[in-house]
Amino acid sequence: LMYSLVRTAIYTFLFFALSLVIYLAFWFVIRPYKKRKHFQRYSETIGFSSSFIPFLGDYKHLNEVYLSKGKFIGHFLRDLAVDFGKKKAFFGSLGMDDMVFINDVDYLTEVSKLVPHVLDRESIDTTGFGRIGGTGGLGQSKTTKYWALRRQIFTKTIGVNHASRFIPIFIKHCEKGVSEFEEGQVINMSEVANTISFEIICEILYGCDIRDKLEKVRYTNKDGTVEIVNLYQCLMKISHDCSFASLNPLNILFPLLVHYSIGAENRRNTKNSDEFERVIKDICAKSQDSNS
User: Residues of the signal sequence (predicted)?
Assistant: First the structure.
C-alpha cells in the first residue's frame, strides 16, 4: 500500500510538473513567437526590436536601454515615434504579455472601432496599484459606466473649445520655467517639459489654488524608510515601480498577487498608490476653483 501511495504521489507530481512546463512553454515561448511571426508579415508598417528572446521577449532591449538607467516604460513608448518614425505600429513582447503600440491615427481609429465589441480592456486597472493610471497601471479598465464617464470628462477637458480657456495657464508656466534657465546651462528639455506639463495639468484639474493646498506625499522606499516628496516626484517613482512590477513573471502568471497586494513589493506599491490617491482626493475636496 505504501509503495502504491508513493508511486501515485510521484506520478501526480510529474504530471503537474510537466503540465507547468507545457503551460510556460506555450505562453512564454510558442505564443509570443507565433504572434511575432504573424506581425512580421506586415513589416513595412509594423516595427520590431532586434533583441527578441524567448521567455523574456523584448525585455533585454527594454532593460538595457531604459530600466537599467532608471527610466521606465513610458520613456520606451515615447521614443517609439522617433525610432520607428516611418512605422505605423510597433509589436513588443514582455514575457507572456504581447503588445501592439500604435503610432498612427488611422490605425488607432480602426482599433477603437473594435472596443468593446471585439476587444475589451483588462480589469486589473480597478484594483491594486493599477488605479493610479489614467487608463491603467498594469492594463486598462473594462468598458464600464465609470470608464465611460472618465473618458467623457477627459475628452471634454482636452477639447479645443474647453481647453482654450487654459492658454494663459500654459503661457504662465512656460514663462516661469524658461525664466529659471541660466546662460550656458545644459538643459534636459525632456525633463523640463515633463515638469511643466505636470504643473499645467495639476492646475487645470485641481484649480488655480493648487499650490495653496498642495501637501507632500509620504512615499515608502524599498528599505521601509518613508520619504516626503511632492506629487510629481511621487508619480514618477510609482510609475517606475509599477513598470518593474508589470515585468515580474509572478505578477504576470498570477494577477491575484497584484489584486490582493500579496508580496512585499506589491504591498509597498499599493501602499504608495493609496497615499497618492488620498492626497489627490483631499486636493479635490479642498478645491475652491469652479473651473477645475
Answer: none
